[in-house]
Design goal:
two-stranded antiparallel ribbon, 48% helix
Amino acid sequence: MEYNSIVNTVQYGKFVVCLDEVLKQKKVSKTKLAKLANTNYKNIKRLCDLDVQRIDLDILARVCFVLGCDISDVVRYEGGECEGIAK
């Protein structure tokens, strides 16, 4: 018997962190952001280098507060193949 796998058949999209772009636009260094957001440099560097699988929402809230931006400026959703909800 053959089984279908959701991994092979469904493209549900992904979230992309674009913090590095925001930092460049606002001319803020990773070191300065880490200090102002009261977190360590590694956390900010991982977000900028897209080296994360889980994001600490508290750190993300502090980053948005310090940069004066919205979460949608820092994280965006790139949709996959979806028919959406039937109307």
